[in-house]
Amino acid sequence: MIPVEAEPDVLRLPPFRYHRPGTVAEAVALMGEHAGNAMFVAGGTDLIPNMKHRLFEPGHLVALKGIGELRGIREDAGHLRIGASETLTSVATHLDVLRSFPALADAASHVAGPQLRNAGTIGGNLCLDTRCTYYNQTEFWREALGYCLKKDGTVCHVTKVGKKCVAAHSADTPPVLMTLDAVATLVGPEGVREVPVRDFFVTDGILNTLRGPGEIVTEVRIPLVSAQKKQAYAKLRQRKSIDFPLLTVAIAADIEGDGTVRSIEGVVTALGSRPRVLSGWGDTAEGHKLDDGIINELAQRAHKQCHPLENITVDPEWRRAMVPVYVRRALEKLGAA
Length: 337
What we know:
The protein has 337 residues and is of the alpha+beta class. The chain has helices spanning 24-33, 47-52, 88-93, 95-100, 102-109, 114-119, 122-126, 139-145, 173-179, 281-285, 292-305, 316-336; strands spanning 17-19, 38-41, 60-63, 73-76, 79-83, 183-188, 191-196, 216-223, 230-236, 247-255, 261-269, 276-277. β4 and β5 (79-83) form a beta hairpin. α11 (292-305) runs antiparallel to α12.
């Protein structure tokens, strides 16, 4: 007889029950029914791998992609409305997005690879879990280390203390949405509320958004007046596909016909638990043209403000050195737009 070898150890999903509600109201009700033991799932491109790593073990998954209310991209009442279940591919290729908000299309087109963009959603990218070298590992790996503050442990292995989680915000589209004054609509057991994307994130690496556990992001709304801004986006990653960002830069500016800057805002992410608005840019650039001198000054301001941590498997000093490089590239792209 040929001996039967034991099945190799593989990453399996924990047991769960899958629900497919037809409306947002049904989804919210299901979440309330299974409160504390359920999670929403849309594309599942981040949640499912995290479940295999036992970072989440919900007994119930409430699916959102079959809900028609969460789909569609359309202009309405002075805004471009994007349903939260629209895929990143749809956002990246939609003519209205490309015409009015090219930086958002650019950011969506740089998330992961094409297969994941075909499944992942704009709402999921907005609510993406923070990431860290010591968190996004298998159960076996994390147990051997002693777990971490974000999951099952009491100490942050990055800062070496247990007071604050510094897992990094790693989504591509939120920095762009912030510069465009976008607003997220959330529906939950307490009703409907709207939160500007710039106020959506908090400095908590464990739960870094204001979204409640029973709330669904139903749409993102961008004022069409923001289409008048010059926009740019730049992303640093280890490879030119698949990888999460080591740094993301989003910039939007109101520039007069002669090239004079009326207003400008830059946002960076992947450095801390929430996107960071770069301060002092208006004082530097407003009333001036984006020439080499102003661009260099803005890039150096960004460098002084950004201090990456060892929460990603790339040397933090190199990442910091790349901040002015990518800020400068985005500003040059802005000037050429």
